[in-house]
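We treat protein structure as text, and this decision shapes the records that our systems exchange. The tokens are whole numbers drawn from a learned vocabulary of local backbone shapes. Below, we set out a record of this kind in full and without editing:
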Amino acid sequence: MAGLSSAQTAGSFPPLEQWRTAIIGKNADALRALYSSSPPAAINTSSGTVDGDADVAFWMGLKARSMNVRVVQSDTTQPAIYRVLFQATAQTPAGTRYVTAVQTWREQAGSWQVIAAKREVAKLEQPLSIAENIYPTADAHEEIRAALLRARKAHKRVLVIFGADWCYDCHVLDKAFRRQDIAAVLNPNYEVVHVDVGQGDKNQDLMDEYQVPMKRGIPAIALLDSSGSLLYSQRNGEWERARALGPEDLLQLLNRWKPQAR
């Protein structure tokens, strides 16, 4: 795919901007006209493959008041074909929704229409790359000891996050912790330690010690008080699909276990 700046918007490809405008304008007919009927558009979703009418119903159903479409990558190497990867951030009555999508457009009789797409919707912003290294190779045991020392001095808890750089949901969780609303609770109350589990062959003694079973998947967490005692551990893979969580899920846990005010 030909790379594009992450700042590029839907306006760089006018049909995509028309598509976005139809969604914001609640114009189902205009939106439907942008989907191929011959051949029928095929839309791959987490619930299976649906047609263009179902995709129109999905986007109309969001009732988006506004929607930013950030283009990440596009491919124009084939004649009359435009393939685009983007993330749509929609402000809806139910809150902010993030939809990561790949669409394939084809020019037919002088007009562009969607012939195929894949989309995934989430309450948390999804990383579009997992190239960033968030799990250090440092000695995890020493990292936890140092975090406990800082926690004792600052009257905090220690949040241990088990994961790996190859794990997509680990990056989802890391990105969520940088949200302003979540960081406002996390940073004053917790020291955070990322523990690399590799392919399930690293730091398994710590997972055992903190009762976090690797077989339940990652990311996984353990919460410690400043003395190192275990307060809570994730034993049933609750955060394995972090992409399915909402900010309210993270805030509920952080607020529940934050230290009491002195």
